[in-house]
Structures are given as structure tokens and as C-alpha cells.
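Expect chain and fold; thus:
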Amino acid sequence: MTSLRPMAPELSEKAKNELNEVPARIPEDLAALKAWLAKQPHLNPRTDDQFLVNFLRGCKYSLEKTKEKLDNYYTVKSAIPEFFDNRDPANAKIQENAMLGVNLPLPHTMGPDGPRIVLVRMGAYDPSKYSIVDIMKVCYMITDLLLLNDDTSIIAGHMVLVDLRGLSLSALSQFSPTFIKKMTSVIEAFPIRTKGIHFVNPSTGFDTLFKMFHGFLSKKIQERIAVHDTFEALHKVIPKSFLPEEYGGSGGKLATIIADCRDNLLNNRQIFLEDVKYRNDERKRPGKPKTASTLFGVEGSFRSLEFD
């Protein structure tokens, strides 16, 4: 018998229709995945039913894709300690970075089976005072909680809203090629689909930003990118009711959303304290180990991001 939290009927139906979920077959799928994990000497993953089903759903119940995704998820976490170690939400520095509100899952989804809107405020921090590494650490803490706890993110995906207001060239200078490669590797490792990316408040740095990331984007996601010069144009795609007041919406005040997001990290502190024990031992991997130097060294070519 599986241990899964109940879902809204609309999400259950979407999982069946779009993600190939067959409820009666879930115990069999989980058993096959757990049997494979038990034979991987280098992996030390979470094995609770809900966590593994989230990966199966994110991979549309392809067992082979799920195996690869799980391996990549823990490989990336092990290879980039600057993003994934020392993540105690009670730490004063992490709380301060969380209150900047750079990465914010909005409380209202786009309908009962619609995607979660994630607001990314790239100009919300001063690059002379804050490190992009520390900022991204908090961003990935928030994404980890969505992976663990938010069925909407897993089943319906994310609609990403990128606010470029305040983005400076000094902030862009922190994005080295190696850093971008690490970021894109993390994005690929999460079993969460990106349904679209919408830019608002394009600044003088937008062209530079787009050129930096353009080579990593698949044709599919390029077709899902839109730039909106006004909130009125944005509201034609994302209705006002889902957006914060500061974006012309009625979905709550930004300060409240930021504080709630910080509190959510604190309320899930135990998850982050335990997470550090789930890491790869690359010395035990069959074949060639995957380390930071082999994954993010100057050798090799960049991969394009694929979203579905």
C-alpha cells in the first residue's frame, strides 16, 4: 500500500491524462524504482513514496527517464555544495536573503489544474552586498519545497514571471559561463516542467541577459518566451487575480508573500537539516565518477535546456 497525500480531483485527472498516471499501477511502478535504487551503490536518496512518485510524475511515468532524473538530481546536489550545503532556514543570512524575495511561488494557481506562477525578481538584490551564489541557494531551497510539497508544481508545472526591474550590468557580471552551466544543470535535475517564461519591465540589461542564456534554451522553450512592456499586456496572459498588487493584480501584497515564503522555509526546517545526508558517493559509482570538475569544467560543450 502506498503512502501518498490526497490531491484535488482536477490534478488527479490531469495526472492521468497528461502524465500517464494509472493509480492502480503506482505500487508496481514504485516497487520497480525502489528495486533499481537498491542496486545503485553510489546513490543514497530519499525513498519515501511521495518523493519517488513526484519524480515518476515529472517524467511521465517513464521508468528509465525517472532513473536518470533521480541520479542527476543527487549528482547535482553532491557536486554543487555551494548551492546545497549549509541550508538551515534559521540561519540569519539565509533569512535575510529569503526576505529579498528574489524567487517567489505565488499563492494563487492559474485555475484548479493550472500551473503554479513563480515570480523571479532579478533586480531585487544589490550585487555589491549580496552574492548570487547565496541568492541561488535560497532559490533552490524554495524549489526543493515545491518538489516535496506542491502537487500543482509537479503535475501542472510552472509559469515563470521574470521581473527585470532594477537589473544591473553589475548583477549580470556575476553570471560566469561555469555559473550558468551549474544553474542550467540544476534546472534540468528537477522534475518540474516549465510551461512558459514571461518577462516584464525589460531593462537595458535584457538583451545581455537573453544572449547569455539563449544558447541553453531549446526551440520549444524559445517559443514559450514572451516579453511584456506593460502590465496590461501581461494581464492578457496572466489574469490580475493571480498576481500581487504591485503587478496590477489582486493576489495579495508582495511583502506578505515574501514573509510567508520565508516562514514556509522555517516551518520546514527539519527537511533541510535532514537533506544533507542524501548525497552521492561518487567513489562507488559504476564507471566514471561525476564530480564538479567533470560536470562543470571547461572541457565539453553546453547542453540546450529542454522543457516539455
Summary: Confidence is low (pLDDT under 50) at residues 298-308. The two ends are 31 Å apart (CA to CA). The chain has 16 helices and five strands. The chain has two domains: 9-83, 92-268.
